[in-house]
Amino acid sequence: MVVARRNALIFFLAAALSGCKIVDNKDLMAARAKSDSEFDAAAYVDKIWASKALPEFKSKAVDLDTLLEAAAEDPDKAGKTYGQRAGEGNPWTYEIKGQGKVVATDFASRHGIVTVETQTKTGARRVDLQVGPVIFGTALRDALPFIHFGDFVNQIQYAQVSRALNDRAVKNVRESFDLKDAVGKTIVFYAAAVLSGGGDAITATPVLVEAAKGEKT
Length: 217
What we know:
Layout: H1 2-18, H2 25-38, H3 41-60, E1 62-63, H4 64-73, H5 75-82, E2 83-84, E3 93-106, E4 111-120, E5 123-133, H6 139-143, H7 155-176, E6 186-193, E7 202-211
Parallel strand pairs: 1-3, 5-7
Antiparallel strand pairs: 2-3, 3-4, 3-6, 4-5, 6-7
Helix pairs in contact: 3-7, 4-5
């Protein structure tokens, strides 16, 4: 009886294995690399930029003053009301809009910064707009509610989308406003940001910068 059961088990294992293909680790790596190389993150972003990303910011961005007031009262509630999270444990990321005077620019490195001073109910607050060409962080990708990790094959593609979004934002901002002659001008900006604590400057990734009403570009 025991021998019969053992023979039956061997038979079923052999049948199961006959339907499986053992794939070498190198083959798996090659297939994964192929899927990454075939994915065009820039094309993906071009497809959603004008139709979804910009309209999302224009219609859903929360006024910075409103957000700061809500975050001061209850950070977690403010996040649930106005923000997005890439995953549990990640910081809340926001689509924000604001207006202020450009008080400084720094283009000494490729991580260009335009610093805006905006007035809030708690006083002046500085916002450092990342205008590139190098952008740090994934705030722009993480702020958009229609982009999810599960939509992509792997982490590599998800990261490629973040870089492509940052590149597209830099292009849009630099084409829409003369950054080199910005100091002293009042601007309106739409950007993605993670709030920093206290009265520290907020680092944001802008998708659109415009001259305020009555201001020349």
